[in-house]
Each structure stands twice: as C-alpha cells, then as structure tokens.
C-alpha cells in the first residue's frame, strides 16, 4: 500500500516554545491531524523516529501516514532511516 505524504519542509532550528509550535502548519507534523511530532530539522526527525512507538491516540492509518511523512522529512534533512515499515520502529535491532 502506497501512502501519500502530507509533510512539507518548514525549517525551524532548535527547541520550539509553545507559541512557535502552535504557529506551525499541520503539514510540518508527522501526525498532522493530532499535531504530534514536528519535523522541522534533522534533530526533530531523529526524535520522531525514536519516539514513534510512544505516540498515543493514533490509528494504524495515522502511523502509516506519519511514517511516510518522517521518511520524506528524513530525505530532506539527510537523516538515515533503516526501518522499512513503521511496525519495526521502537523494536530492538538484531545487531
């Protein structure tokens, strides 16, 4: 199944305060409907990957779209994503 992304680049460096986060467009979030996990720079992309399995209150379809958004942002910010499916995020690797 091919999921379309909703993510669009919107670079903000560093920590976001509440006002800055509230001013971000929905298209900058991994989970746009819930406005969870902003993808505004490489650090935020890495954080979204690391916390992916901790996001609550989302459906599998939301996770599918979020993973597509994260991969798009990762390509843009040159972040390596080793997982090929969202179901693999948050699981220990076999290294």
Question: Percent helix among the residues?
Answer: 25-40%
List the helices and strands in order: HEEHH
Q: Please, what is the oligomeric state?
A: single chain
User: What's the number of helices?
Assistant: 3
Give a verbal description of the structure.
By secondary structure, the chain is mainly α. It contains three helices and two strands; from the N terminus they run αββαα. Helix content is 36%, strand content 6%. A hairpin with a 4-residue loop joins strand 1 (29-31) and strand 2 (36-38). The longest helix is centred in the C-terminal third of the chain and has 18 residues, at 60-77. The mean pLDDT is 90.
Task: Give short descriptive properties of this protein.
95 residues; single chain; two-stranded antiparallel sheet; mainly alpha; 36% helix; 3 helices
């Amino acid at each position: 199944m091919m999921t379309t992304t909703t993510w669009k680049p919107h670079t903000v460096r560093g920590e976001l305060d509440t006002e800055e986060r509230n001013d971000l467009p929905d298209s900058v979030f991994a989970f746009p409907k819930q406005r969870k996990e902003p993808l505004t720079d490489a650090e935020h992309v890495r954080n979204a990957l690391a916390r992916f399995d901790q996001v609550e209150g989302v459906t599998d379809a939301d996770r599918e779209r979020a993973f597509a958004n994260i991969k798009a942002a990762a390509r843009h910010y040159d972040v390596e994503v080793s997982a090929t499916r969202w179901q693999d995020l948050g699981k220990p690797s076999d290294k």
